[in-house]
Specification:
322 residues; alpha/beta; Rossmann fold; 8-stranded mixed β-sheet; 4-stranded antiparallel β-sheet; 11 helices; binds S-adenosyl-L-homocysteine; methyltransferase
Length: 322
């Protein structure tokens, strides 16, 4: 999954109608603006310190551009840092947010100031491991090459410690996912927040686990595809276990809030007022703005499947909307 996604993101811009999937910031400017204001409010209540803006996997840079514009109206104009491995998307980000510094890894982020961190649809692209319950017990799921296809197979027994006690007796066929890569990044971000100050907003589709479920999926041209076919040519994702990320962050000394549903977050941050203001300024776009708001907040669309988790430094204020 890691190797396939590395190739996938390195070789294309997958976003938008002509690509494989669309994300919240590409649906409407309201998404990035409200996140920018959420950060500006926290920064203001933290005493307006010098900070860095950090985004993990910024895609085309659209969220950052919208957030930074809204933050500037509140007097917040921090240096910008992008953690991005794709050269194709890094080029799009440079065009959209000139002056941003790119890093390959969170360890390269500056250590001198509090960090305001945003990650939208970043963690779902990180690899997961799957454990499957077979008639003979739990096995780690592996990927085998059965010419001309990759196929999932049951491998050896996993470490007992990987199986949460309350799921140990799940029926045969049950799958449990873990994402060591995601937990590792959450830990390192949390340690930075505890050491340097600041806050993080993690938005993605996911659940509060650990739970049973095979959530690995592939998207090609906005349709579900077989994740075992055409590796590197399809977007591979897995749902994010927010409870496990929060627990990892707390263990490193950060505070965790949520997750709250994306629809609830955006309603509480005032998407209704923002949509009304945009509509008043451009009445001809009324329908498009209403549709975008619905896609972002409606329970049947992105409103409940997508969730937001907030992390803060221990001494930072309680974030809005959580
Ligand atoms: N946040 C953007 C893009 C989401 S797509 C949006 O909401 O539109 C996932 C992003 O994460 C892309 O920018 C991709 O290049 C980046 N990415 C994926 N795996 C990564 C990794 N291991 N390290 C750094 N960036 C990664």
């Amino acid at each position: 999954m890691a190797a396939a996604n590395r190739y996938y993101y390195a070789t294309r811009d997958p976003l938008g109608a002509a690509g494989d999937f669309t994300t919240a910031p590409e649906i409407s400017q309201m998404f990035g603006e409200l996140i920018g204001l959420w950060l500006a409010d926290l920064w203001d209540r933290a005493g307006r310190p010098d900070v860095h803006y950090v985004e993990l996997g910024p895609g085309r840079g659209t969220l950052a551009a919208d957030a930074l514009r809204a933050m500037a109206r509140a007097g917040l104009t921090p240096p910008v840092h992008f953690v991005e491995t794709s050269p194709v998307l890094a080029a799009a980000q440079r065009a959209r947010v000139p002056g941003a510094t790119r890093h390959d890894d969170v360890d390269a982020l500056p250590a001198d100031r509090p960090l305001l961190i945003v990650a939208n649809e970043f963690f779902d692209a990180l690899p997961v491991r799957q454990l499957i319950r077979t008639a003979a017990g739990w096995r780690e799921r592996r990927v085998a090459w059965a010419h001309p296809l990759f196929v999932p197979v049951a491998g050896g027994p996993p470490l007992d410690a990987l199986i949460p006690a309350h799921l140990a007796d799940a029926p045969p066929g049950s799958v449990i996912e873990t994402s060591p890569a995601s937990v590792n990044i959450a830990r390192r971000l949390a340690r930075r927040l505890a050491d340097q100050g600041g806050a993080a907003l993690i938005v993605d589709y996911g659940y509060e686990g650990p739970a049973v479920g095979d959530t690995v999926q592939a998207l090609k041209a906005h349709a579900y595809a077989n994740p075992f076919e055409d590796p590197g040519e399809r977007d591979l994702t897995a749902h994010v276990d927010f409870a496990t990320l929060a627990e990892a962050a707390v263990a490193e000394g950060a505070r965790a809030f949520g997750p709250v549903d994306q629809g609830v977050l955006l309603d509480r941050l005032g998407i209704g007022a923002r949509a009304a203001a945009l509509t008043a300024a451009q009445p001809a776009r009324a329908e498009e703005i209403a549709t975008a708001r619905m896609r972002l907040t409606d329970a049947g669309q992105m409103g409940t499947l997508f969730k937001a988790l907030a992390l803060t430094a221990p001494a930072w204020p309680q974030p809005a909307a959580f």
